[in-house]
Automatic annotation (TrEMBL):
Gene3D superfamilies the UniProt entry points to: Copper amine oxidase-like, N-terminal domain
Protein name: Copper amine oxidase N-terminal domain-containing protein
Pfam families hit by this protein: Cu_amine_oxidN1
Source species of the chain: Ructibacterium gallinarum
Segments forming domain Copper amine oxidase-like N-terminal: 33-141
Length: 288
């Protein structure tokens, strides 16, 4: 990715953090970039009722020397720098980088005439590392390093925070921008080793096609899915046949392998992961 993107994530993080902020409960939150605390001159970061840290995107971008425009009619922020363009519409769960869509699981807001975006939004769009120190109430942002061939994948298994969310869990590649910076043609595939039933699923395709079985054995790019590699839903998570005997419970271990294919050099690498399943909501049987 262009130098601007690397700077953006550094700056965004910088801007996205700064002066001590107050969390919903009143605790002071600090934000640092590469060990240096960030200070905001005007609108300041804050933690909302959903425990999201939001930062003013204009300060982050302008600190990088970028031009920021605001389209009031469409409520869209446009950031331009060195030929790169990032657009984000308030309330959307997606943003565009040079016309390429990136999907997120949260959204930004407009507050006191300032556009605020979640810290995670900035980290994913700008390739910065983000950690949380609960003891000191500090968000730790690390600017991207040198471009690395086949960077070590950093995965997160997410679980729904609302019963209306029909997903059982989904897996994201948190540092996918590190891969994009190295080669724009990486592909990813996840194969579940336990339970293997997660590798197949059925879906009702209507009166004409009926129920169809699908395998999760295809490589995918992250161009249109943000950084989500695979999603397992509470409904249709397996086949109707498997549903008769297959069972899973909170705390069960999910084992899977991630295969990464670097098309730029036709090389592949495989990584193994394990994660404990969290089931805050009832599991739905396939076909229900």
């Amino acid at each position: 990715m262009k130098k601007f993107l690397s700077i953006v994530l550094t700056v965004s993080m910088l801007l996205g953090i700064g002066v001590p902020v107050f969390a919903v409960g009143g605790e002071k939150v600090r934000v640092t970039l590469d060990g240096v605390e960030i200070v905001f001159p005007d609108a300041r970061p804050f933690i909302d009722a959903r425990d999201r840290t939001l930062v003013p995107i204009r300060f982050v971008s302008e600190a990088m020397g970028a031009d920021v425009d605001w389209e009031n009619e469409t409520r869209t922020a446009i950031i331009r720098k060195d030929g790169d363009t990032i657009t984000y519409k308030i309330g959307d769960m997606k943003a565009f980088l040079n016309g390429e869509m990136h999907v997120f699981d949260t959204y930004g807001i407009l507050k006191e005439d300032r556009t605020f975006v979640p810290l995670r939004f900035i980290s994913e769009m700008l390739s910065c590392g983000v950690d949380w120190n609960g003891d000191t109430m500090t968000v730790l942002i690390t600017s991207p390093g040198e471009v690395v061939k086949f960077p070590e994948p950093k995965l997160t298994m997410h679980f729904p925070d609302s019963e209306s969310d029909r997903r059982l869990f989904w897996i994201t590649l948190d540092n996918y921008r590190d891969f994009e910076r190295d080669c724009p043609n990486y592909e990813f595939r996840i194969e579940f080793k336990n339970p293997v039933e997660f590798n197949v699923f059925e879906q009702d395709e209507g009166a004409i096609n009926g129920w169809q079985k699908y395998n999760r054995d295809q490589f995918v790019t992250l161009t249109n899915s943000g950084n989500t590699i695979v999603t397992i839903r509470r409904a249709y998570y397996t086949t109707r046949e498997n549903a008769k005997t297959f069972s899973i419970a909170d705390g069960d271990t999910i084992d899977f392998e991630l295969t990464i294919h670097r098309k730029c050099s036709d090389e592949s690498k495989m990584y193994s992961f394990s994660e404990a399943l969290k089931m805050p909501y009832p599991l739905e049987k396939a076909g229900e």
